[in-house]
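To the team - FNR complex, inputs and output below.
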Amino acid sequence: APFKLAIIVGSNRKASINRKLARALAKLGTTSFTPHFVEIDDLPMYNQDLEAAAWPDTATRLKAEIAEAHALLVVTPEHNRSIPAVLKNAIDWAARPSGKGVWGGKPVAIIGASPGGVGTACAQQHLRDILGNQGALVMGGQMFITWKDGLVDDADTVTIDATRAFLQAFMDKFAGLVGKLAA
Ligand code: FNR
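Output:
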């Protein structure tokens, strides 16, 4: 596959529905993307004191993994009508030190799953704004996935045909955008 895709899941819980969705998207994107999951649950809470004194290895790793990717896919839940703190923490680390962030110019696709019908709409809106301010090239459009048990099976396959087609179109659209930007 031509493009390296860094996938960030905005949840740190083991049974995350967004991680399941992310695995399914990685599988749907295999013609265009080689996926790599970027873990964010091992980062310390951002503290500017650490920048000078003890910049963490985990933050170095995070930045390197984002920097070397052609594109980013952020699959995130919504917490209290915004992005989870663990995701904001990762965004803050990878934006530092000032002027040396790694978000600028990166094509980003945003999607999220929630058990609730309008879930992740506010989180996605905030995320678009935050990453846009970092200079990321966030793909337009809205992708809210209402989660039902069994939507993604143990082989990372989307079990509902219409949803699978919808998610395939999303990955194809993103691959098209990344291809245009790489040209
Ligand atoms: C939630 N949840 C939630 N859902 C939603 O659609 N909008 C919201 O604002 C919130 N707020 C919220 C706050 C907190 C602190 C928690 C723990 C949960 C429910 C959420 O969608 C559900 O727990 C998902 O399963 C979270 O995604 P992961 O972690 O399974 O990927």
